[in-house]
Amino acid sequence: MATFKAIRIEKADKGQTVALADFDENELMDGDVTVAVEWSTLNYKDGLALTGKAPVVRRFPMIPGIDFVGTVEKSTNPDWKEGDRVILNGWGTGETHLGAYAQKSRVKGEWLVPLPIGMTGREAMAVGTAGYTAMLSLLALEKHGITPKAGPALVTGAAGGVGSVAIALLAKAGFHVIASTGRVSEGDYLKKLGAAEIIDRAELSAPGRPLGKERWACAVDSVGSQTLANVLSQTKYGGAVAACGLAGGMDLPSSVAPFILRGVALLGIDSVMAPQALRREAWRRLATDLDWSRLQSMVTEIGLDQVIGAGSDILDGKVRGRVVVKI
Ligand code: NDP
User: Which residue blocks in 35-186 are alpha helix, DSSP H?
Assistant: First the structure.
């Protein structure tokens, strides 16, 4: 019986159990491409799955992990052949389909994108879903016609994964980036990534007026809730906000004032089911637009045996930037 190492989540009488274990290859789910996984990463959603704090896992047993880079081992899909280097983000892996914290994965070929030429597997996972979501946010703002000439760009949840990459991408695109963080002690880190100004997230977390002073032309918001409401109310006339996260809560206690009095647009960002063409566009841009010399300070590396503890850390807001997992 062939086995491989994986993080395994089982349902228990109360909640779930999670452990590094041997997984039987026969338990792999349907798919036309089998991948030898080399690198994965840690996202907020992985933290929710690993701890069971939100019902992210929809079948048991489950291997969590929503992102991987690996090499195709076997394929009956005409688009992929043995030896191809591939990236997977989302599509329900780690939720409904066995995921990335494993030496092996079997998935649908249509979920995969090629690892961009010139990007290493470790770099791609330093980007991961968080960074690819930051790029989807930038693409959405660009498609809305927002340019650096319109004014500053705000990033909330700045020291987190989405936030860190969003700062680097917006700065590279020429924006004056304002970083909103609860960890003002990370000011130097945020400035190295490209932030021009740092604000305390407390400024945005208390209930505010329906319309405030116009402070930024656009924003990438990974926090949601009251923060997103305040971000909208302080967005300049004709500006746009890419809403991609809920680290501060799922609700949106806002009014229609920014939309109907300032023509502000709220752009929804989903990485999980994003169509192939958009994914490929995002990864192409990530390969050209990220300055790796700036991003080194963003990356921490752990092994598969450290993933369970790291899952709690990310929910406790203790993780800075991005964590890559060497499988
Ligand atoms: P991280 O935990 O790395 O970052 C989240 C950051 O949000 C924290 O670092 C912290 O930043 C800030 N934050 C945390 N709690 C609060 C709070 N209560 N109030 C205000 N700010 C808070 O997570 P990721 O960057 O991986 O993900 C960020 C969000 O984006 C998550 O909600 C995640 O689910 C979502 N997401 C959505 C995707 C999509 O497809 N739409 C894809 C990927 C992620 P600081 O310390 O700087 O204040």
Answer: 44-51, 121-143, 161-172
